[in-house]
Amino acid sequence: MKPEPTNTEVLDIETFTKNNLILSENPVLRYLTFSALYLAQGIPEGITYFAIPAWLAMNNKTPVEIASFVAVIGIPWSFKILIAPLMDRFTILSMGRKRPWVIFGQLGLILSFLAIGLVQDPLNNLNGLMIAGFFISFFGAFQDVATDGMAIDIVPINQQARANGLMWGSKIIGTSLALVIGTALINILGFNTAISSLSIAVAFIILVPICFRERPDEKIMPWTKGKPSKESKAAQLESWSQIFKNLFKVVVLPSTIFMGIASIINGTMYGLIDTFLPIFTIQELGWTNTSFSQVYSITTVVGGFFGMFAGGALVDFFGDKKMIIIYLIASLVLIIGLAVLPYLWGNDKFIFGFILLYYLFYTFLCIAMFAASMKLCWQTVAATQFTLFMALSNMGRAAGSGLLGTFKEIMSWEYVLLCTALSPLLTIVFIKLINFKKQRKTIDALSKI
């Protein structure tokens, strides 16, 4: 007969089971949780940045109108820096430093997806559509800030590149699925019902931050038992002056400044190409919104898949800086190639190849840029500092989206693409100026003061 377990053995089993549900104690759970949360971020992006612009293009809205919509929904992502200090300063510490904010952001996403169904006659009410899209982007950005802050707090530095690969790959897949499913639902059910129904997918993902703790002994919900962890107490800043004083110390460092400028310029490329593709393929090449969504989804899922399993590994092996420059050079060559070969635009395989390669390098570039940005962060203000990099990138993205309509009014597509190619070229210049080792030594010195 098998002997009964001793009290010590029972305690060990309970401790092991409990620790398996704590993010700081379980690397596999960390990877799965952050991947799921980034998948949730991809849903609003797929709808607002791609499905709706493609639908507007199919319904003969002008490039200026479409670019204006994309620029407006990009605004909340540009001002994430205003949200991050709030999260660094206030939280329900007994539930973790960032998990309460993640849950709040997910709730907001659910409600904002339902609210867009209230917009009447969206094709002839672009202002109403912009307002509804703005709130979807706002809560998407809110959840993004909280998730990034939690990742920097919880994920060890030596696992951050791999985590970024899984997270960004999941976001790309979420974006792709939202686009292809959202487009199909729009064509079958109509715009309002289709977009509102996507709140169901977001609602399922809210279970992820609800079920797991950041650190041992913390509460699952405000009314359950638990207490703040020592690590959270030590990292939590208790005054606005502390936050802004520490943020200023790290923001004025040269490498932080160079990364900030590189993020703005690189974001401009994202905005220009993301807005260019649905307008160009549908209105210039005669594609349907369904064919665009299918091509975009296939190519970005491929990019996301390779990014999840290879993006972080390549950064770990070759280094952030080297891989960022390689990806930027590849993007530069691709964009110039499309610009100087207009006689191949009628070849669907050529356009498919461009989109596939661009989004493959786009995914790898995002993973490398995010991993590099995390390395430049000081943990005491990590959420705010990392969000600053992301906000600057999104500011560039919003500017790029808005510029697309203006560029198209004064020049042909070939010259629009050549102007876009300046972005990766200039980004390379500033990336080469970054010194990661010097930044880390300075941050270590600041932490001892």
Automatic annotation (TrEMBL):
InterPro entries: AmpG_permease/AT-1, MFS, MFS_dom, MFS_trans_sf. This is MFS transporter. Its main location: membrane. It is a multi-pass membrane protein. The keyword Transmembrane applies. Residues 255-449 form the Major facilitator superfamily (MFS) profile domain. The lineage of its organism: Bacteria, Pseudomonadati, Bacteroidota, Flavobacteriia, Flavobacteriales. PROSITE patterns: MFS. The keyword Transmembrane applies. Keywords: Membrane, Transmembrane, Transmembrane helix. The chain crosses the membrane at residues 66-87, 99-120, 126-145, 166-188, 194-212, 250-273, 293-317, 324-345, 351-371, 376-395, 415-434. It comes from the Bacteria. It comes from Mariniflexile aquimaris. It is found in: Membrane.
